[in-house]
Amino acid sequence: MSNAVTAETANTNHTNNTSIDNAQYQPQLIEAQQQAKWATDKRFEVSNEPSDKPSRYMLSMFPYPSGKLHMGHVRNYTISDVLSRYYRLKGFEVMQPMGWDGFGLPAENAAIANQTPPAKWTFENIDSMRAQLKLLGLSIDWSREFATCSPEYYQWEQWLFLQLYKKGLVYKKLATVNWDPVDNTVLANEQVIDGKGWRSGAAVEKRDIPMYYFNITDYADELLDDLDQLEGHWPSEVITMQRNWIGRSAGMEVHFPYELAGESNTLDVFTTRPDTLMGVTYVAVAAEHPLAQYASEHDEAIAQFCALCKKGSVAEADLAKAEKIGMDTGLTVTHPLTGEEVPVWVANYVLMSYGSGAVMAVPAHDERDYEFATKYELPIKQVIDIPVGYFDDVEDDNNRAYTERNIVVNSGEFDGLDFEQAFAAMLIKLEPQQLAKKKIQYRLRDWGVSRQRYWGCPIPMVNCEHCGTVPVDEQDLPVILPTDVVPDGRGNPLKNIPEFVNTSCPKCGNPAERETDTFDTFVESSWYYARFASPHDTTNMVNKSAANKWLPVDQYIGGVEHAVMHLLYARFFHKLMRDENLVSGDEPFANLMTQGMVLAGTFYRVNSDGSTTYYFTEDVDIDYDERGQPIKAILKSDGQPVTIGKIEKMSKSKNNGVDPQITIDKYGADTVRLYTLFTAPADQTLEWSDDALKGPYNFVKKVWRIASEHIQALTTTNLSLESLNNDALNTDNLSKEAKALRRKTHETIGKIDSDLGKRLALNTPVSSLMELANELSNFKASSEQDLQVQHEALIDLLIMLSVYAPHIGEHLLEQLGLDTVTLNYPEVDESALVQDMITMVVQVNGKMRGKMDVAPNSDPEQIKAQARALEGVAKFLTGEIKKEIVVPNKLVNIVVAG
Predict the structure, then answer these.
(1) Do 567 and 604 meet the contact criterion of CB atoms below 8 Å apart?
(2) Distance between CA atoms of 543 and 577, rounded to whole angstroms?
(3) What DSSP element (H or E) covers 140?
């Protein structure tokens, strides 16, 4: 049962001068009381049992347990919570869960720095962040909480991995990675800085190591086509980013024949521009390609060059920026159309792991090939017609590759053909000779999920010298990660733990070794949303009936920085789980909102050595202008000025982050929640300003005062809270002011309902609530009927406010005698919206001279006569009336001569 004040006790309270009457608004006290009440009542826990209510699953992207909340977290989870509370009031059974993305590299780095096990660091941070989240008053079902680094969770991704392995959707192959030769570890692309390891400073090498892959390309067409289902429900830019990442392109696989050591073979390349085939002047291969390896064995210079190519990052972005270097192997392949010999170069910009490890180079029509050919003085042959004057405005002589489609030239029998015609003609000629075939290729590549790191989910495979790679038996799951390990950053410590490594082969029983690689942490975050439906199920990865009740997620909320990888992998996993009969439907997230970043001002000094020191906002005294913009900043510690910098994303490096705890302690969680959503639309950036918090804070205090004065006014009447809350309002003979207040109340109910339920606009409802509060504050009740209207408006205001500011909203509703557990969103009374009188402005020669009340849509002639009769108007009608203009229901303008 709710702890809300009952009607009976509320009536007694209001006649006995309750605490609300005289007490000042104390958010810390009220918020602690409400949060304790919600926890005791398990207010927001929901069941998986069937319900008469429609279900609604609201989910914000779960956090990495870094130890402290930041304002980005606050904004993200407040958005989800506002929508959750709104839909509960609308009669939905709402699930809003919370968990922790527990594995990851930051925990290992912190463990190295602090000499503590990542598990200990992670779970301590979870405890800290859970307490911080609860201070926000989020309506979370904490009974569904889990951390992805617990065996109870990750055992199920191990189980799914085994099912996929059986189906051939998991395979193992060599992959090129960034290798730190000092720390003996694989580096993520972001850990390579200027070609060196972020920790050791050693020059990074490329190294081929065996890795496990999910065959996501088997689902590429479905992942691409199903984006059509999300049109209008996901941001269009996110859908575009997903389409571009998958990157389906139709092209041609062309075979360049060659003979090597007496054996015939072909060099296979994929191209989306077969119309340029006659412009090929060389081919380039990766250092690991068989042709490059053959050349290395016969030429020490080439061998040294190939070794050089194995240094540096393997990231596409780094390769694009790197200087293009190469070496002629001395080998050739045969052009499939001309029969001419084409030189084979080994180049650093070609990777063996991408496609076939070879590209055909057309310098005249590809910028990268043009740069390379110009550097090494290789032939450049134009085969596409270039419009006259195309390069007239191009100042860079290194950028004269014409990359557009046009008519084929200098190509013999193919001259004069456009792209489609040339594509078809070349395929007709080459395909019968088995020198080409049409092919669909994707930018998307299979997902390499092996990570040579300790703090992650163990891959459930065993390496046996007799049987090779063998999957762990399902009954032996989970393969549990040791949690008492303190990594030192030099290689994977699992390799040095005999108790973990040494095992027996599930197939032959002989001694074997466990796989010491762990899963990419994207694996954990790719299916957590589904586990929330049945987080404690010990027999299924996802309980199908629970999944059918809650999935897909009705509203998913998170940063746009996750628009590609996380969302793509989650969509992939949903399809995998669907095909295992664990979930239904094709997509995991029915609707997606990407919230904007939180920005804040920066304050700094440039030091004598050229370095910059940034200061925390709380360490600076700031003067603001009338628009709330900082104009002067003084460092508190020495009284000297500091420079006011740019508005930037909150970050530790700029010391411009705002600690939510400090702000909540000062203003209360309700004010912080209101501010984060009121100041800017949820999908746009929010510029944080401590000074601007005063607006929402004053609004909350105004609501407190209005409620306090209303209860005080009731003590002098015969009206009881029970009758006010339960009896129908008599709307006969309402005063003009009472009608206006009711109209504003019910307009606000309808507008906020539309904003949240249809438009997903979260900032404008706060403005509407502020406007209604102003109307209430200005309303002067002069009768019991006026008090009844005031009570209705106040109750409706507080119900709608409780969506944004739940602590004060529910506290005041309870003080006013309502059970907050059973509340519903107020309904619009259409009769209250009907205006029996409207106020029209009367102008004379364009200047306002009076106002008058008339019935809506009154006869224009009657309106003109009434306007002329106004005392404040008549005295200005001293000349001939030339014209009378009536703007229906708005104004009258009388034009007078002279």
Answers:
(1) no
(2) 11
(3) none
Q: Which residues pair with 313 in a beta bridge?
A: none
pLDDT at 179 (0 to 100): 83
3-class state of residue 714 by DSSP: helix
pTM of the full structure: 0.85
Q: How far apart are CA 536 and CA 476, in angstroms?
A: 19
Structure tokens at 602: 């920066």
- For residue 576, which of 152, 169, 173, 61 has the smallest C-alpha distance? 169
Q: Is residue 878 within 8 Å of 898, Cβ to Cβ?
A: yes
Alpha-carbon distance 61 to 97, whole Å? 10
* Burial degree of 211 (CB within 10 A; 0-12, 13-18, 19+): buried
**Overall size of the chain counted in residues:** 898
d(CA 33, CA 31): 5
Q: What's phi and psi for 470, nearest 5 deg?
A: -130, 130
- Residue 853 burial by CB count (10 A; 0-12/13-18/19+): exposed, middle or buried? exposed
Of 164 and 619, the one with more pLDDT: 164
Question: Which amino acid, one-letter code, is at 670?
Answer: D
Query: Tokens 């007490």 belong to which residue?
Result: 23
Rounded CA gap, 549 and 552, in Å? 9
Instruction: Judge residue 323's burial from the number of C-beta atoms within 10 Å of its C-beta, 0-12 exposed, 13-18 middle, 19 or more buried.
Output: exposed
Going by C-alpha positions, the residue among 595, 593, 575 that lies closest to residue 585 is: 575
Q: Note the pLDDT of residue 13.
A: 36
Other CB atoms within 10 A of residue 250 CB = 10
CA–CA separation, 659 and 363 (whole Å): 54
Q: Say how many C-beta atoms besides its own lie within 10 A of residue 462's C-beta.
A: 22
Q: Which residues contact 449 (CB under 8 A, 6 or more apart)?
A: 211, 212, 213, 214, 459, 519, 520, 522, 523
What tens digit of pLDDT does each residue of 144-161 get? 999 999 999 999 999 999
Q: What percent of the chain has pLDDT over 70?
A: 95
β-strand pairing of 598-600 with 686-687? parallel
CA dist 866 and 870 (Å) reads 7
Percentage of the chain modeled with pLDDT above 90: 73
Point out which residues pair with 408 in neighbouring strands. 384
Q: Report the alpha-carbon distance of residue 451 to residue 212 in Å, rounded.
A: 9
CA dist., res. 828 & res. 400, Å (int): 66
Give me 325's structure tokens: 């270097």
